[in-house]
TrEMBL record:
The lineage of its organism: Eukaryota, Fungi, Dikarya, Ascomycota, Pezizomycotina. InterPro entries: DIOX_N, IPNS-like_FE2OG_OXY, IPNS-like_sf, Iron_ascorbate_oxido_reductase, Oxoglu/Fe-dep_dioxygenase_dom. Residues 174-290 form the Fe2OG dioxygenase domain. One of its GO terms (biological process) is small molecule biosynthetic process. Belongs to the iron/ascorbate-dependent oxidoreductase family. One of its GO terms (molecular function) is oxidoreductase activity. Keywords: Iron, Metal-binding, Oxidoreductase. Coiled coil: none annotated. It comes from the Eukaryota. This is 1-aminocyclopropane-1-carboxylate oxidase.
């Protein structure tokens, strides 16, 4: 799949005419593919390099240290570390697979970070002497991503011809999350037998996702008009930011923009011999979300007598809890 890479400076530094042209191109890409790539977005190369270095530091810690900040399976937004296989994304679309969720495993572990000032769902941090400066860096990175996301939303508002603030005003106070993903090395036979994926097909819960990845590959998006056919996303420069539409934006726009179904499998270059070891993979999505009491049914701007709302009107938090429940088995939830 060819995902165009657009220069975000055309919006942040451009003339009004250049901004409108950029917004139109970005919306065109989101309508066609549910994703777009941008450069010159505001996350500089040193920040990105340090992000990946610090992420790897956490996942290299002894297991007992990671367990000090372990997230226990629940409907609540995730905070802290989740071990390999705890989250089961196959549950989001288990009806499509026709197989029980506990037969389909995710081969990933992750660490989730919410708003630094979140009193309702507090972050979990190791002591500073374990990973000096780690918490302060991750909190600063969270704020940088929030600024980038709001800038992208401003472009989307322009491209959709709705007043500035229509979407942005529904994002304060913030509820967005950074996720640090580690996909350990895995034998290709574990994926090819159909019981394990690095992450199963799913859409994200929020408004948009800002994604940074390493160069290992394996990310695939479903073709917008060809259900069930997934195409690999070519690896670009490490500072290319992949932006995909998530569930809330699809709901707000009443389906004008569709959430991008995606998964992580083996890289297309991998020889699927039984003994082939697929190298570990790293990625960092920023899951940009609505404020928790915002309603996530269709916005009035996208509803007409001819096109009624296709989505129920519930709060963003209730919608997340509904979806969150699906990534754990009943047995996992019963233990809490």
């Amino acid at each position: 799949m060819h995902a165009p890479a657009l220069d975000h400076h055309r919006f942040t530094r451009g003339t009004p005419k250049e901004q409108r042209a950029y917004a139109a191109e970005l919306i065109q890409a989101l309508k066609a593919h549910s994703l777009v790539k941008i450069v010159n977005h505001g996350l500089d190369d040193p920040t990105i390099e340090e992000l990946f270095t610090r992420m790897q530091q956490f996942f290299a810690l002894p297991r007992h240290r990671q367990q000090e900040v372990e997230h226990l399976a629940s409907d609540n937004p995730q905070r802290g570390w989740s071990a390999v296989g705890v989250e089961q994304t196959s549950g989001l679309y288990s009806r499509e697979t026709g197989r029980p969720v506990d037969e389909l495993k995710d081969a990933k572990e992750h660490y989730d970070i919410g708003p630094p000032d979140d009193a309702q769902f507090q972050n979990q941090w190791l002591n500073n002497d374990v990973l000096p400066g780690w918490q302060s860096f991750m909190e600063d990175y969270w704020y940088k991503c929030q600024d980038v996301a709001l800038s992208v939303i401003s472009v989307i508002e322009m491209g959709l011809n709705v007043p500035q603030g229509t979407i942005q005003d529904l994002c304060h106070p913030a509820a967005s999350e950074v996720r640090l993903n580690h996909y350990p090395a895995i034998h290709s036979s574990d994926i090819s037998d159909g019981s394990t994926a690095r992450i199963w097909p799913h859409t994200d819960f929020g408004i948009i996702t800002l994604l940074l990845t390493d160069d290992v590959g394996g990310l695939e998006f479903e073709e917008s008009h060809n259900s069930g056919k997934f195409l690999p996303i070519p690896q670009g420069a490490k500072n290319e930011l992949i932006i995909n539409v998530a569930d809330t934006l699809e709901r707000w726009t009443n389906g004008t923009l569709k959430a991008g179904m995606h998964r992580v499998m083996q890289p297309v270059s991998t020889n699927l011999g039984e003994k082939t070891l697929i190298q570990e993979r790293w990625s960092v999505p920023y899951l940009f979300k609505a404020r928790r009491d915002a309603l996530v049914g269709a916005l009035p701007e996208f509803v007409t007598p001819q096109v009624p709302s296709a989505y129920d009107s519930i709060t963003a938090l209730d919608f997340q809890l509904r979806r969150q429940h699906q990534v754990y088995t009943n047995a996992q939830l019963a233990r809490q």
